[in-house]
Design goal:
2 domains, 79% helix, mainly alpha
Length: 165
């Protein structure tokens, strides 16, 4: 569109001039909208990259891994303590003899109840530990958490596996 074209439109009448100006404004608006929409995608991508790979995100992920590792180590210690409790119940009742069938009935019931409770507590703590490890390992497999993992420091999946090795 040249100025001569606009002058000819103006000479032909104000309606043609107004119509031509309206279409020019609409065309400019459409072009600006398309460019803005395209730039919005780039802006959104930059925002996501900043949220996932920025310094604050890196620090948060690092701290999460350290906290999980500490929680897993504490659970490992708790499991050993509860294993000792299960063994302790058996040791506590050894004074009644090796043959449990000769124990008084109320002692047998009490022993079974205490031993069962100790085993259930052990199973619960081991289950919590295994869930923490699954969360840790699942997070370490995410591509955006890759800088914070190494194969050497991944905890074993279950506590029994830990004891065997």
């Amino acid at each position: 569109m040249s100025w001569q074209s606009w002058e000819k439109s103006a000479d032909k009448g104000p309606v043609l001039f107004t119509l031509k100006a309206f279409f020019a404004i609409v065309l400019i608006g459409v072009v600006i909208s398309v460019v803005g929409y395209g730039l919005g995608w780039f802006g959104q991508a930059a925002q996501v990259a900043k949220e996932e790979f920025g310094p604050r995100a890196a620090l948060d992920k690092y701290q999460w891994f350290i906290e999980q590792e500490s929680a897993i180590k504490k659970m490992d210690q708790d499991i050993k303590m509860f294993e000792g409790r299960v063994t302790g119940v058996t040791e506590q009742y050894r004074g009644y003899g090796e043959d449990q069938s000769k124990w008084p009935p109320h002692i047998q019931v009490q022993y079974n109840r205490e031993r069962q409770q100790a085993r259930e507590d052990l199973i619960a703590v081991a289950s919590q530990r295994n869930n923490l490890v699954k969360e840790y390992n699942a997070a370490s497999e995410k591509f955006n958490w890759a800088p914070f993992r190494t194969r050497l420091d991944k905890p074993r999946e279950s506590f029994q596996e830990y004891q065997a090795k």
